[in-house]
Design goal:
The protein is α+β, with helices and mostly antiparallel strands. It has two domains: about 30 residues; about 190 residues, Sortase (Sortase, Chain: A, Beta Barrel), CATH 2.40.260.10. The protein is built from four helices and ten strands, in the order ββααββββαββαββ. The strands form two sheets. Strands 3-4-5-6-9-10-8-7 form an eight-stranded mixed beta barrel. Strand 3 and strand 4 form a beta hairpin. The longest helix is centred in the first third of the chain and has 25 residues. The protein is globular.
Length: about 280
Amino acid sequence: MESRLPNGRWHLSKAQRKACAVLAGCGAAVFAALAFALFPLFPAGGGRAQPTPTPTAAPMPTARPAPATEKPEQTQGPPRMLAYMAELYEQNPDIIGYLHIEDTNMDGPVVYTPGEDYYLRRGFDGEKSTAGCLFVDKYNTVDPRDANLIIHGHNMNNGTMFHDLLKYKDEGFYREHKRIRFDSLYEEAEYEVVAAFVSQVYYVSDTVFKYYKQYDFADEAAFSDFWENIQKLSLYDTGATARFGDEFITLSTCDYSREDGRMVVVARKLPPQGSPSD
């Protein structure tokens, strides 16, 4: 039993002292445990406790926005043949055009066989024929088209094929027949006569202007040489003009006024009616 001493202190029995010792030991243990738990919150340097960062999830990669749906390119289909040309093409796929000059016998299909004169003595039907057929020079290219297509035709005594081409020697005839109709498979087109002259087939070694070698023009200088020469050779002044990039046809037939002579008519393609350059 406890009792208070005269000096004011309490006197504890042996059993009470033992119980107090046990309690003191337990208290020390609890204090030590709390100190150990709280120690990480107080760094050794003494400052304020640093909050433990809250873990966050790694950012997800931003998804690339789906591309806008693009409209497919409007691709044009193959060009459609002129109706009458389609019928002729079914008869003979070598056809590349149709030539017509008003009030003359120069009217018929024009064929092309690269590298050979197959139609020199064959008709449009492929059968042998003295008159042959109107045909583009074998050294020309029609697809892509050369700037100048040279079209050959026989000078027939019966007035057919290119016989009437000789009438262009007369300026009066030219004045009444300035326009030539030459349709391709896909396009109707008109040409204007820009020169008419008599020439000939020269020897390979002759260094002269050879109209039958003028297929295409690599540059403006080559075109200027062609233009200046046909103007010099022309039997009369047509007053026509042309520029680099224009397209031409050159009609050629035999002329018996000289050895290996040729009657030649050159025509320039006109822009379609109603076009800005018309």
